[in-house]
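JOB MANIFEST
job_type = single_chain_structure
chain_count = 1
residues = 335
[input]
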Amino acid sequence: MAEGMSWSVTDGDKLTQAEIYGEVLAQLGDKYSNIVAITADLASSTKIGRFGKKFPAQFINVGIAENTMFGMAAGLAQSGMLPVVSTMAAFASLRSAEQVRTDICYQKLNVKIIATHAGISFGQAGSTHHCTEDLAVMRSFPNMTVIAPADGFETGNAVVAAMEIDGPVYIRIGRGFEPPVYKTQDYDYKIGKAIKMRDGKDITLIACGVGVLQSMRAAEVLKSQGLEARVINMHTIKPIDKDAILEAVTETRRIITVEDHSIMGGLGSAVAEVIVESGKACAFKRLGVPDVFAIVGYPEDLYHYYKFDADGIVETVGALLKMEIEEDENWEDEA
């Protein structure tokens, strides 16, 4: 569990990411009297409305005016309040990018952004509601912390942990129908510290968001084939856990990244930057949405189409294991 506050939900394994977020935020209102929850007419869809029902005097619905919402959040933060803003990821990271960048990040204001319907989790809604660019956009903003929780339990832990940070935080979650990875919220969660979900020596799968569950499923299939795949839950994209990445490079020499995001600019790119800057080398592949606008369809079908479900991961592992790697134990001398 995240440090700072205990939280609980009933039947958490049956709730969506957004439902757990809404419940945890309502509980946080008892500890942080300066929270102001703001929505742009999506109180029900994002579940921030649960806070509004408990604390109506600290809840603002600006209507369909996302840019105004983020500007208002910046002003409230300047006044000593703790704004929590929720809308769909496409509106937060694309429509309101300028307000998030200049009004909030430039001044390092204490604003928490919880963005729902990220990636292609709302795949049937089409490109206007897909958001495969938000990690790339948000992690490029100075002062911003960027988190992509694996499931509802981790979303609750991330929201609690975000309140302990003085500065802007972006938490992206899916539409909410993804099955849980964890059985409970009671595990060691720290922003910026990756979690080794299972160990392995043949290859490492570094994932975030729904990619963690798909990687765990793939690792089970690989185990039946006699392969040991390490799975790392890289829930924090920025600041990224460099030690976990470099340990994987040294110990497994093969890495695949898995994310519900464009392969350009997101988790895969962040991991690649760490590897390249280290002077070390490994066989490497990014799985996610390629450099295209995603097709329309149900999320599970799209994950399979773009090969970042368990089947696609297993297929990619097979290809990567065929790559020849030059054994070299003297990396440090060459760096």
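[summary]
The chain is about 40% helix and 20% strand.
The radius of gyration is 19 Å.
exit_status = 0
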